[in-house]
Design brief:
The protein is mostly helical. It folds into 2 domains: 2-49, no CATH class; 57-108. The chain has helices spanning 2-5, 31-39, 59-110, and strands spanning 14-17, 20-23, 46-49. Strands 1-2-3 form a 3-stranded antiparallel β-sheet, with no helix packed on it. Keywords: Membrane, Transmembrane, Transmembrane helix. This is Thioredoxin domain-containing protein.
Length: 117
């Protein structure tokens, strides 16, 4: 927490409101003073955006993950198309080979048998 919120001294009071972090500076830590800070004085205090949690993906990380996912999905689609084309052309080659074999067999059957004397 000290690293995430930049805490260097203690005690420290931080008010989180609307994604902004307000730092309470001095004036004692009485209940009345803290209530006054939380209700209206926080507007004059030093402020900064609440730092993101370390494990939360930033928008850049999310864009990177979407890009990687899209590239991966595209690669899978290309691989599937490649496999379909491979099977199609293998089938076509086998069919052509079988047709040529049948044609040769038909030619051999219609050819005149050799004469035996």
């Amino acid at each position: 927490l000290a690293k995430r919120f930049g805490i260097t001294t203690v005690p420290v009071v931080l008010l989180f409101k609307g994604g902004v972090m307000y730092s309470f500076q001095g004036g004692g830590f009485s209940t009345e003073r803290l209530m006054q800070f939380a209700e209206r004085d926080f507007e004059r205090a030093s402020r900064m955006l609440v730092p993101p949690e370390p494990h939360v993906a930033t928008p850049h990380d999310q864009t990177f993950l979407i890009t990687i996912g899209t590239v991966g999905a595209g690669a899978i689609v290309l691989w599937l198309v490649d496999q379909v084309l491979l099977r199609y052309y293998t089938y076509k080659a086998r069919k052509k080979k079988a047709a040529m074999k049948a044609e040769k067999a038909a030619e051999a059957a219609t050819a005149a048998p050799p004469k035996i004397e």
